[in-house]
Amino acid sequence: MTLLAMQAALRGGKEIHKIYRRNDVEVVYKEDQSPVTIADKKASEVICDVLSLTNIPVLSEEEVFPSFEERKEWEYLWIIDPLDGTKEFIKRNNDFTVNIALIHHNQPILGIIYIPIADVIYFGNHKEGAFMCKNAHKMDPEEILQKAIKLPIPQHRDKYTIVGSKSHMNPETQACFDAIMKEKGANNTLIIPCGSSIKMCMVAEGKADIYPRCSNIMEWDTAAGHAICEAAGCTVTEFDGTPLSYNKKQFKQPWFVVRRES
C-alpha cells in the first residue's frame, strides 16, 4: 500500500507543479468560501485513479462524498487532500502539499505527504515508523524506500519551537502561543509560521516541538500528517487528550495539538 500511495502522491504533485508554473491559474470559491483551482482537480483525478487499483473506497476533498450511511460501513478508506494549502498555492509561496492517508476503523494507519516544490516526501505507518526522502521525483517508490531517512532526525535546537499556520492565525491560536511562551519562557521559545501539512511534518521530523491548532480544519487536512506524526513518536490529540478520529458524519475536526514527546 505504501508504494502505491507514494506513486499516487508523486503523480498528483507532478500535475500540481505543471499548473504552478503557469501565471494564469483561475480560482473559484466553494460554498464555504474556500478556494479551489484546476490544480486541486487535476491532482485529485490522478490520485483517485491510482488508488482505485486497491479497491478501497477513496474520499477526496475535491470529489462527491458518499452518504454517511454508506461510509460508516467501510472498514478501510483512503482520505486524500490533493492540494493541501490552496491559499498558499495561490499566493505562490510554495507551502502546499499532497496528502494521502489510509484509514482503518476510523484511525489513520498510513500517511503520505509530498511537498511538490521542495520535492520532499514524508511517509509513515504504524508498523514500520516514519521516514522522509529528498529529490523524490527523480526516484521510483522502491528507491525512495531504500534511500529514506527515519524520523525523527536528531536536531540541535536551543529553543522550544512552535509551528503555526500562515493563513489561519486567530486570537485563540495567539492565546495558545502566549501560554506556551509563558510556560517555556519567551526567550527560550521560537515560533515558525508555515502552511499546509508541512507543520505536522516539522514536528514529525524533529524540527519543531509542538503544533497547536485552534481554528477550523477538516479530516483530509489532518489524516496523513496524523499517521506520520504518530509513526514518528508524536501524539496527535484534542487538547484534552482525546484521539482524533476519521470518517465521521461531519468531516470537521476539533481543535487539536501535535506534540513531540521526546
Can you give a write-up of this model?
The chain has 8 helices and 14 strands. It is an alpha+beta fold and 262 residues long. The protein has 2 domains: 2-151, Fructose-1,6-Bisphosphatase, subunit A, domain 1 (Fructose-1,6-Bisphosphatase, Chain A, domain 1, 2-Layer Sandwich); 160-260, D-Maltodextrin-Binding Protein, domain 2, CATH 3.40.190.80. The protein has a 7-stranded mixed beta sheet, sandwiched between helices. A 3-stranded antiparallel beta sheet has the order 12-14-13. A two-stranded antiparallel ribbon has the order 1-2. Helix 1 packs antiparallel against helix 2 (38-51) and helix 7 (198-205) packs parallel to helix 8 (219-231). The protein is globular, with a radius of gyration of 17 Å. The relative contact order is 0.15. The mean pLDDT is 93.
> Number of domains in the coordinates?
2
Per CATH, which architecture of the largest domain? 2-Layer Sandwich
Tell me the CATH topology of the largest domain. Fructose-1,6-Bisphosphatase, Chain A, domain 1
How far apart are the termini? 29 Å
Break the fold down into its secondary structure elements and pairings.
Layout: H1 2-20, E1 27-29, E2 35-37, H2 38-51, E3 58-60, H3 68-71, E4 76-84, H4 86-91, E5 97-104, E6 107-115, E7 120-125, E8 129-134, H5 141-147, E9 149-151, E10 160-165, H6 171-184, E11 189-194, H7 198-205, E12 210-213, H8 219-231, E13 234-238, E14 256-260
Parallel strand pairs: 3-4, 10-11
Antiparallel strand pairs: 1-2, 4-5, 5-6, 6-7, 7-8, 8-9, 12-14, 13-14
